[in-house]
Fold this protein.
Amino acid sequence: MSTDLEIIKAAIDDFKKIQKYMLLAKKENAVETFAELKGEYLSLKAILNTAGVNLTDIDRIKE
């Protein structure tokens, strides 16, 4: 059984990974891929905000 802390850590790891792929997609001008990743990014951002995680230092996209 996962603790809240483990769930938050997993969400942060996913958030950082999605951002990495978004930056690559933007660099490669992969518009559709970027749009798809942005949906995941926004969902994870909402979850982390609800959990009280301060995203100031880890949000590289800022959207």
Remarks:
- Residues 15 and 45 are 7 Å apart (CA to CA).
- Residues 4-27 form the longest helix (24 residues).
